[in-house]
């Protein structure tokens, strides 16, 4: 009996030994890896391309020998645009994947669900999305581990005012006195309308809501008729990507061509630029492939993205995702460690030349102490490409003004 | 019957009053309303057909149209076809998709409690929209065709002319269905099955086959509508949900099995919605008007029934 027991134990040891050796090896190699945990909505183009660009940055770092001699890894989880799933993704990244940094992000609603979990773990975080000031308030002051790249909503609003005033000042023929905002009737559109009224309070501002296609609408006739009657200098619509082409088609149908036709959705349909209806539409954004002409870093990023994925990025969340990884990597390199306080100190001193054109450094915003980018850019579709028309230092084309009437296209 | 006449009379009267008011005050709202009504009716008629004959509330109705729109999109992109040409293969494919869906899922719930039927078709809706989300992402897609932006001006009123196509499709659907149900052998069999499936079986009609063909015809109609839909709207995985809801409300307002009333109900709702939206700040009120009218009609119908309207 005793002999059999000994034999069984020996057999078990023989069987288990290789597995134990491999496990300990894996644990060593895992400890050697520097891990970034990313959460994006992968079904959406912003999340899909943001995560792909972040992976591109990881590949580039590994191809250059890693970070502090260690390999880097990106663990990606899909938030599915759900605050609950976004929050549980952070839990998983912290507890199971044991990542060193949190990156990614899109949509303020999702981020509001994630912030309490992030506060629990307080890992160094480089967030690329969430523009709502409510998210900033939820993070609160004195959270030195939290770094936010995307401008907050009030930063964006202020940059639009600065941008339009600069454009009107530079180009005498451009008038921006009368504004009409067509806004989707949900919280995004309504708050855009309120913000526009407040920001441009010294100008004439009117607006009308429409039901977005994303919520079962898609008929813009009434709002276009009202805008046409108002005869604005600047017509802005604040809806979603699903509204973009149908709205342009219905504007053409009703022969509505204001002098400045501006779209302000969070993202554009990937093939919008291919439509002749897109020509001369002005938009807000942070990056476009045209910036490659004025920024070597942008060109390097863009070429790398095309080489890896076979197509140009269609959203600025791609260079933002890339930037989030690269800026953390540069800080880790400068700190010589992944230890939290050292990385935070390095990030506070950083001046990172980003593919977005700007040199990013962190300074306080209204609530948090580490805000990265504060400006959006004003762009315009010209010959199927997004061209930057403001800030003038990144301008890649002169604005086409007025918006070409439909009958002359 | 008399109760139906009362409802139809009220609807016609309401439409008449609205037309007069809008012609005087806001003619463009009347045109937009009629165009919108055409879209609603053309999408709701297949649901009314299925509900009237098969007695199933298909909560995957809008999602099936969404699938058809994606099919049209794929065919157009792959073969460079116009969506109105791609409509033909889409309708044929959707006919067989509908047939398969019915044979492998819905037929097993025919005798189940209504709640189970609802859950089944709701589940199908989820599978279809999530499936498309996985395959094609949530990125909206749209086919741009020049003729969509054709327009006309009468006096100082400009309007698109293409959107009248939805009203034409609705009228063709309605006329075709009425002729099919009243003049063809299969249609008469379907009417018999719809009114009394047990009796129809006794006289030798294959009930399940009839249900299958009716469901497949409704799916083919959704195939046609999917092709028209993508000429006008962007498509994305969840685009169908709102149209399931609107179609169901229209069918409920029209009364089960009452196909002509679907068109009339669509006119009431389309014109009312458009009238409300033409008032500054009125957009937020349009869902309230939409559902308020439906509640009013259903209450009126119940009242008429209990009070025995003559």
Q: In a nutshell, what does this entry contain?
A:
The complex is a heterodimer of chains A (409) and B (310). With 409 residues, chain A is an alpha/beta fold.
Task: Characterise this structure.
The complex is a heterodimer of chains A (409) and B (310). Chain A is 44% helix and 17% strand. Chain A is an alpha/beta fold and 409 residues long. Chain A has 3 domains: 1-31; 33-151 and 292-360, Rossmann fold (3-Layer(aba) Sandwich); 155-285 and 377-408, Rossmann fold (3-Layer(aba) Sandwich), CATH 3.40.50. In chain A, strands 7-6-8-9-10-13-14 form a 7-stranded mixed beta sheet, sandwiched between helices. In chain A, helix 4 packs parallel to helix 5 (133-139). Chain A is globular. The N and C termini of chain A lie far apart (95 Å). The model of chain A is unreliable at 19-29 (pLDDT under 50). By secondary structure, chain B is mainly α. Chain B has one domain (2-307): ABC transporter involved in vitamin B12 uptake, BtuC. In chain B, strands 1-2 form a two-stranded antiparallel ribbon. The longest helix of chain B is centred in the N-terminal third of the chain and has 27 residues, at 27-53. Chain B is globular, with a radius of gyration of 20 Å. The termini of chain B are close together. The A-B interface holds A 43-45, 48, 185, 208-211, 213-216, 218-219, 221-223, 225-226, 240-246, 249-250, 252-255, 269-271, 275-277, 406 and B 28-29, 32, 36, 133-134, 137-142, 144, 148-151, 158-160, 162, 232-234, 236, 238-239, 241-243, 245-246, 274, 277-278, 280-284, 286-287.
């Amino acid at each position: 009996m005793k002999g059999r027991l000994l034999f069984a134990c020996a057999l078990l040891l023989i069987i288990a030994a290789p597995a134990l050796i491999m496990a300990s090896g894996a644990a060593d190699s895992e400890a050697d890896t520097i891990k970034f945990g990313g959460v994006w909505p992968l079904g959406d183009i912003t999340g899909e391309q943001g995560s792909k660009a972040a992976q591109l940055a990881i590949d580039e770092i590994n191809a250059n020998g890693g970070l502090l001699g260690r390999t880097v890894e990106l663990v990606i989880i899909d938030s599915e645009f759900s605050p609950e799933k976004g929050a549980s993704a952070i839990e998983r990244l912290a507890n199971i994947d044991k990542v060193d940094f949190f990156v990614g992000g899109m949509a303020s609603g999702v981020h509001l669900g994630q912030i309490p979990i992030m506060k629990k773990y307080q890992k160094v975080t480089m967030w690329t999305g969430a523009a709502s000031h409510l998210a900033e308030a939820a993070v609160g002051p004195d959270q030195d581990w939290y770094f936010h790249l995307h401008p907050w909503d009030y930063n964006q609003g202020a940059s639009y005012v600065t941008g339009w005033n600069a454009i009107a000042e530079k180009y005498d023929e451009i008038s921006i006195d009368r504004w009409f905002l067509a806004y989707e009737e949900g919280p995004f559109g309504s708050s855009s309308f309120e913000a526009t009224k407040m920001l441009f309070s010294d100008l004439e501002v009117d607006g009308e809501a429409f039901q977005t296609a994303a919520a079962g609408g898609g008929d813009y006739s009434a709002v276009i008729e009202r805008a046409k009657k108002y005869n604005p200098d600047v017509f802005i619509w604040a809806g979603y990507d699903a509204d973009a082409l149908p709205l342009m088609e219905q504007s053409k149908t009703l022969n509505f061509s204001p002098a400045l036709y501006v779209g302000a959705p969070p993202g554009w349909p990937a093939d919008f630029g291919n439509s002749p209806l897109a020509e001369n539409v002005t938009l807000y954004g942070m990056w476009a492939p045209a910036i490659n002409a004025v920024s070597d870093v942008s060109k390097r990023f863009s070429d790398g993205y095309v080489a890896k994925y076979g197509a140009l990025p269609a959203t600025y969340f791609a260079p933002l995702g890339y930037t989030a990884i690269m800026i953390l990597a540069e800080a880790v390199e400068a700190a010589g460690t992944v230890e939290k306080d050292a990385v935070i100190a390095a990030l506070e001193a950083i001046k990172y030349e980003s593919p977005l054109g700007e040199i990013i450094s962190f300074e306080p915003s209204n609530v948090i102490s580490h805000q990265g980018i504060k400006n959006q850019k004003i762009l315009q579709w010209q010959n199927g490409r997004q061209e930057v028309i403001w800030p003038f230092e990144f301008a890649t084309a002169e604005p086409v003004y007025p918006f070409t009437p439909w009958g002359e296209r | 019957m008399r109760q139906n006449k009362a409802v139809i009379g009220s609807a016609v009267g309401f439409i008449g009053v609205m037309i007069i008011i809008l012609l005087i005050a806001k003619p463009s709202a009347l045109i937009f309303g009629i165009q919108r009504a055409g879209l609603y009716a053309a999408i709701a008629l297949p649901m009314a057909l299925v509900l009237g004959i098969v007695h199933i509330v298909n909560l995957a109705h809008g999602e099936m149209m969404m699938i058809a729109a994606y099919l049209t999109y794929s065919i157009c992109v792959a073969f460079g076809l116009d969506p109105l040409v791609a409509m033909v293969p889409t309708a044929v494919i959707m006919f067989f998709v509908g047939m398969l869906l019915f044979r492998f899922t819905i037929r097993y719930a025919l005798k189940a409690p209504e709640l189970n039927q609802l859950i089944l078709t709701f589940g199908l809706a989820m599978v279809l929209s999530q499936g498309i989300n996985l395959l094609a992402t949530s990125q909206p897609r749209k086919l741009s065709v020049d003729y969509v932006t054709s327009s006309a001006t009468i006096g100082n009123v400009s309007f698109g002319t293409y959107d009248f196509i939805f009203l034409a499709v609705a009228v063709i659907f309605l006329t075709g269905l009425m002729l099919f149900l009243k003049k063809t052998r299969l249609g008469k069999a379907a009417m018999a099955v719809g009114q009394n499936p047990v009796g129809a079986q006794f006289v030798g009609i294959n009930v399940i086959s009839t249900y299958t063909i009716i469901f497949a015809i409704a799916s083919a109609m959704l195939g046609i509508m999917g092709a028209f839909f993508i000429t006008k709207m962007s498509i994305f995985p969840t685009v169908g949900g709102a149209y399931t809801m609107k179609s169901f409300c229209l069918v409920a307002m029209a009364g089960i099995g009452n196909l002509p009333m679907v068109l009339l109900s669509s006119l009431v709702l389309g014109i009312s919605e458009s009238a409300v939206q033409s008032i500054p700040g009125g957009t937020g009120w349009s869902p309230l008007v939409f559902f308020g009218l439906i509640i009013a009609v259903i209450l009126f119908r119940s009242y008429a029934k209990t009070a025995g309207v003559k």
